[in-house]
Specification:
Helix content: 25-40%
Distance between the termini: 39 Å
Structural class: alpha/beta
Strand order of the largest sheet: 6-7-8-3-9-10
Number of domains: 1
Number of strands: 10
Radius of gyration: 19 Å
Length: 251
């Protein structure tokens, strides 16, 4: 389980997180929705320890991580895999080298075992036999799947997805959504996604939480979010230009 307690983070005068409280249950897929710039990716970076909060706590499997030293934090980070918004592949490395990068840096696995692990992960995302291709030779959807193979290469307990369907056409976005569901079932992992795409949110989630004005505005199952009476959440999920979010922007 991951517990986030009263988390605060500012950048200069911009108060991004203003008391986030959230519990993520083991084995679930939770999606954090919200508008651009609301702090979704900032929250992800706190969960994996890439950013430190000004106040608040984050517990990962009962261990409070915000005050850990670099070596202790590195051990916690091995529990996480992350799919970055733009795939973030190394352009100068082959597909195989991209996927094996963490394995070579952080484990003592022999070369044969590394190659086997790379092949297994590529098979899980439906891309067998492309280890020698370069990122420039891949389509956008293939890059996203290679990045997903890299995210699961270390057999993580948690996977973080930063806008998994961004930049993809609707069909390829659905392929990625199905992959997320498939990996959830096959690997029995806990998944945390951030997105503003409600098609993705409804499809992959056990629960959906909306981040608004630095706090969790509402959390519930996809069905509960669809039927919400909360005017802020309803405006966002319906994509309406009229409502309290726009009123706030006018102030």
């Amino acid at each position: 389980m991951i517990k986030i307690k009263n988390l605060h983070k500012s950048f200069a005068d911009n108060r991004v997180l203003q008391g986030v409280n959230l519990e993520i249950e083991e084995g679930e897929t939770i999606t954090i929705i919200g508008g651009s710039g609301c702090g979704k990716s900032v929250l992800l970076k706190h969960i994996v320890g890439l950013l430190k909060p000004e106040a608040g706590e984050i517990e990962v499997d009962g261990q409070e991580i915000t005050r850990l030293g670099m070596e202790e934090l590195a051990e916690v980070q091995k529990k996480f895999g992350m799919l970055f918004q733009g795939a973030a592949l190394f352009d100068s490395l082959t597909v195989g080298e991209n996927i094996s990068f963490g394995l070579r840096m952080l484990t003592g696995l022999e070369e044969r075992e590394i190659r086997k692990r790379v092949s297994e992960k590529l098979s899980l995302v439906g891309l067998e036999g492309i280890e020698q291709l370069m990122p420039a030779e891949l389509s956008g959807g293939m890059k996203k799947r290679v990045a997903l193979a890299r995210a699961i290469a270390m057999n993580p307990k948690y996977i973080l997805y930063d806008e998994p369907s961004t930049g993809l056409d609707p069909i390829m976005a659905d392929v990625i959504n199905n992959l997320i569901l498939d990996l959830q079932e096959k690997l029995n992992i806990t998944s945390i996604a951030v997105t503003h795409d409600m098609v993705t949110a409804y499809k992959i989630s056990d629960r959906i939480a909306m981040l608004y004005e630095g706090r969790i505005e509402e959390i519930g199952t996809p069905e509960e979010i669809r039927e919400t009476k909360n005017s802020v959440v309803r405006q966002f999920i319906t994509g309406s230009s009229e409502g309290p979010i726009k009123m706030k922007l006018r102030e």
